[in-house]
Amino acid sequence: DAGVIQSPRHEVTEMGQEVTLRCKPISGHDYLFWYRQTMMRGLELLIYFNNNVPIDDSGMPEDRFSAKMPNASFSTLKIQPSEPRDSAVYFCASSRQVVSGNTIYFGEGSWLTVV
Amino acid sequence: GESVGLHLPTLSVQEGDNSIINCAYSNSASDYFIWYKQESGKGPQFIIDIRSNMDKRQGQRVTVLLNKTVKHLSLQIAATQPGDSAVYFCADLYNTDKLIFGTGTRLQVFP
After folding, report:
1. Given 3-state DSSP classes, what are the helix, strand and coil percentages for chain A, each rounded to the nearest 5?
2. Would you state the pLDDT for residue A99?
3. Which of A9, A31, A38, A43 to mutate to test the interface with B (most CBs of B within 10 A)?
4. Contact B47, B37 (CB under 8 A)
C-alpha cells in the first residue's frame, strides 16, 4: 500500500497567490482529515470528510480556506489569497473507520511557505 | 470543549535511560487517548492508546499511564534509544471521529 500521498511536498509562494494542496487517501478509507501544524499552535484539525462529505469544518481558519473531496481518492485544500501567517505544514490523514487511533494514517505533509 | 496539552516542550535524556512524557487534559468526558510519534519531516505515527476504563497499558518498550482523578496521562519509554528522538503528542479521539492533538514534547536522546 502506498500510504497517504500528498503533493506538493514543498511550496514557496508569494503573498496573495492561490495555493492548492492535494491528497490521495489510502484506497478503501472512508475518512479524510486535513491538519495544519505550526510551532505556535501545534497540530490543528481543519476539516474532515466521511464518504466524501464534509462533516466538520469548524477548524478552518477563515473564508480564505476551502476544501473539497470530489471523489473517494482525491481531496484538495485551497488557500486564496495566501498570507505569510498561512506558512505551516499541512497534513492529510485517512482512516477506514475511526474507532481507534491506530486506524488513522498520515501523509508526509506539504510544507508551505508564503513570503 | 476538548483540550489536550503537554507539560514540557523539550525533554533531554541519555541513551539507555527511561523517558517520561506527560500530558494533561481538561475534558472529563474524554474516554480514549492516543500517543503519537512524529519524526522529523514525517507525519505522526501511532504508538499506543488507552481507554478510560484502564489505568495502564503496555506495549513494546512503552507504557501509558492514565490518572483520571487529575486528568493526566504519561508515556514511559524504557531504555531510550537514539531512534526514539522525535516529537511526541498525546491526542484525544473526540466524539469517536475527531482526533485532537496536544502541543507536543520534543524528546532528545544523547549518547
Report:
1. 5, 55, 40
2. 65
3. A43
4. yes
